[in-house]
């Protein structure tokens, strides 16, 4: 297969076929040495990093990935100190930064921001999170985590739990999972069910899924449990958020009813939905996910520049 | 001509002769390859970047320029998180950063900040915008844009439109333009005329200029139109700003009365003074200006270190 | 002596023996060439820089030090724009960043933050200031300054003046000074005496020290005067701070009663406790301290990676 990521935008997981995603994951697992010893693969290339919402993981791992590849990074995470503060439109800002960078990584609360940037710019654009909509590289690394930790996807029963309405990582993950023969168990308060369009998508693709509110009742059936936080910043009111916060709290006690090798994942940041006691369990892999994320982003950047 | 920029401060456009500026522009046009493929010219050099006012273009293009030259960048754009927050004077901050950097780029709302830094420090200082006063590298790139896009300066009629009182790019551009045989048309509301000292300067140098309020009336005569935004942050009150905002709005319709090859420029950010429809016109070069700015700053840094 | 800093955390000055500190200082003085010409010693290494309190000197000098060594830097100083803003714990943030970096530099107002990070992480952690508690690299460079400027420590009478209660640089410096045959004169308002545990420590080690309020009265006896600022951000109330601010102001006039070669130091930032007129005196070395700090941090990073 020819590199399908060369000079390509990465806006939505829906834009990629199963073969393309597996191609990416196959490359990602080979990036260990570059993560460890560095390289000069992208020497003289500059990544423009524009983060208009808070971020730790995504911003720093793109930053580290680019530097491991020998490239450089410019940009801003302190948007109050950019010309956006003077009233400049995002569109104008993007067109300006295009002159200084070879690839652009964008996070924004506006759902279409990265997509719009991809349309108007001549350099590749990577969506690093667009409002409640998409977070494709997070979902690639989530898929990679399951594949590496369990050795396969087919045949697994995967629980996705928490804020399924506002959580962009869930919205981006579903299109990837439906490429496989998996059973999905969607666990959420009734007010935070997955969105209608996600439901239609799953039905159209004949994915087996159930929607439930009780985590305890389905826990024994799960091979993977993907926890998510309540997306405080997307709720309409603080009251609504406070009602929902604490709806699910995964403890060692709760986990007693789960399979012994139940894989426990979380895109992070977690607030209180996983008790810190759970961290030490060997199947709790949420602090390994960022490492997979680094390998994934090294691979993605190298492939976009067709530099491997 | 020997490199006149070696180890030199860049504070005001008034400090440079026509010959020196043309020397810089001649070097800048040759920087295309470095902007594209990078270099190691300034390996092991560190640029200190101190931005105490919002910036996108200037900060990121100095950052990119230094990295294309193989150098490194340190500094801050989030001044609230520096020791200035603890009450440290700018002067002390500058003297400290001098120890970590080989050249300093400073933006500040205080008009004399960069000039003062240049006086007390032993490393070269570049003014990246000092209040309403000066922004020399912006003006160098503006001049470069006209020269590259029109092939010459002499004989042109150049309109400068908008907030001519508070706009530092205009204040810095005038001393450059008066080196050439140009006619200047200064278009502004009467409250935002160029400052008295600028007027005296133009008269002393026998520059042909007129001051008008109506853009439409003079548009047909112009070869270049340099639009600027109302400098909201410099106005004395929000009311005054709101009265002035929208005073000039350049649309495709307005442009029908202009010469077909009228060059349309803007230092950016623009707010509403140029309609987005104008962006697609081939003579609208304001999104090409940042690219010239990158070349210009690559040249300037390389020359300051006398490294070409 | 084998490099005692290889793969080591740097949390408190109390963790290091006299021999270890002198080993570090001996290496630091040899780093001049690297500070001037750069190196590739730490190529492919990444420093994670997490600053949760304002900083200029410490952050930028670690940044510059790492880049002089050929390494890269990622991190944040704008903590409002990190996932901490979304409610992530510091502990989770540290565990994530561990995946992207080879060494972590942490500043935090929480006194145990760096120590805790060192306990839970598998990469070396450097404390870049923890609340009112510790700032070990500042104290190493302070010791280096005295040693380089006076040629020795033994036999000196060293005055430490200002906010001895909340100032973390003092708290970190005392354990270093007590390794030598020095006399300490602790000059502070009675409300801002050194803490009880510091006093006990000095007594246990039989260090000669006196506590006084009047700077003038002891000035003639001093070989070194280490001034500190009132730690506004640590005071319980603004009123208390305002009462104390201005308690000590070192002027040229005051200094007339001091020895002619009295070494004047300050960790910076200074507010008003040293008059700017004093800056020009040859024995005022507080603007040389940041340069020693750069050498010190270059040495420390190189030694932690055992790369010399």
Structure explained in plain terms:
3 copies of one chain form a homotrimer. With 308 residues, chain A is an alpha/beta fold. The first copy, chain A, has 2 domains: 13-134 and 291-304, Rossmann fold, CATH 3.40.50; 136-289, 3-Layer(aba) Sandwich (Rossmann fold). Chain A is built from 12 helices and 9 strands. Chain A has helices spanning 18-28, 32-37, 57-68, 90-97, 113-120, 136-150, 168-177, 196-204, 215-218, 238-244, 252-255, 289-304; strands at 46-51, 72-76, 103-108, 125-130, 157-161, 183-187, 208-212, 224-227, 263-265. In chain A, strands 7-6-5-8-9 form a 5-stranded parallel sheet, with helices on one face. In chain A, strands 2-1-3-4 form a 4-stranded parallel sheet. In chain A, α1 crosses α12 (289-304), α4 crosses α5 and α6 packs across α12. Chain A is globular, with a radius of gyration of 19 Å. The two termini of chain A are 14 Å apart. Chains in contact: A-B, A-C, B-C. Chain A binds chain C through residues 37-38, 51, 54-57, 59-61, 63-64, 67-68, 77-79, 229, 232-233, 268-271, 276, 287, 290-291, 293-294, and chain C through 43-44, 46, 48, 72, 74-76, 78, 80-88, 91-93, 95-97, 99-101.
